[in-house]
Amino acid sequence: MVSNSDVWVVVPVFNEAPVVRGVLEGLRANFDNVVAVDDGSTDGSAAEIEASGAHLVHHPFNLGAGAALQTGVTFALLDPGARYLVTFDADGQHRVEDAVSMVERLRSTPVDVLIGSRFLGAATNMRLSRRFLLKSARLFDRASSGIALTDAHNGLRAFTRRFAELLELRVADMGWASEFLTRLAQSGLPYAEHPVTVEYTSYSLAKGQPSINSVNIGMDVVLNRMLRGHR
Amino acid sequence: MPWIKVLLIASSLLVLVVLFRQRKRVVMRAGTRLAAVVLFLLAVVSIAIPDIPQAVAERVGVVRGTDLLLYVLVVVFALSTLGLYFRLRETDQQVHQLARAWAIQEALRREEQHATRGGAATGSADPGSETGSNSGDGGNRSARAGGETRGGPDEAPREAAASDAPAAGHRQRSRR
What we know:
The complex is a heterodimer. Chain A is an alpha/beta fold.
């Protein structure tokens, strides 16, 4: 197996106690460096993370998914040996094999950013409403960042240190995925999509974002774009 | 002069006093204060001599002076709300940065503490290729995080401890 000691996997965690340990252990079987950012969970997530042996960074209170991700990236970048970073959802919807193959592709091809796409791959059990929502999100992202992806809000992404150092997410909320694309467009770095399988388990469906939250996300992204640099 | 006028003028004076007593808030810029002084003067004038706002209202095409006041109030309210929103956003971002810096330092401190307490026995059990470069990383990492960590050999045991799941139980002590 290829040594992945120069890879850091960042897993933002918010109240995922029932599944997070299994997810992290699966990751640790393939990656030496896994950092889970506990975003002020109120269940036993922190203990589960520690039990898994992953690095734990613990937000003192809930800051939001984007902020948690940025914390994990900042933490990973403290290791000068970190060359590749992977973001991975804690709810078990992603497959570790996909993360591994994304890192391999980053190593072998001159792209800086790979974004997982469930539409290029297979999505199991996706509801029609969710499918439609994701299509709309895609149009929204194309309008706001100029980047058109087949899957706008996939949590599985892999990127190089170069891009990670530029990332600096400010949208603390779920809108980070769109901000990520904006930053990507600004950086001008080469990117690609990578087919991944998303498994919609009953757990992730119950936990997932209510669709109405997309209104909040969209507003946050637009406001943040308008106000960026505003003091 | 009716009592209501005295009361109104006194309360607007109070607003002014409160505004200027907030000396600690450097962000409160001079422009805001000047605007406040102007507003205060306008308030006093229109309370003392209601004919003036009435005349101004008629001049700009508003029927009643009170309506004019209402419109001005709406504008001022919107402006101050926006101003507060910007400030809040800025504060939020500062809080996030602070929380992030704290969380990372805390994580490093906890891992180092764990490494020095229990990691020595397992030493370089980490099967990865990292052990060689790690001692260097440790120093760098702590320094960049601004922590009080001493750097040096903390990193290798940290990895070893991390790969040693059962040991996690006693790491938990430092949590709150």
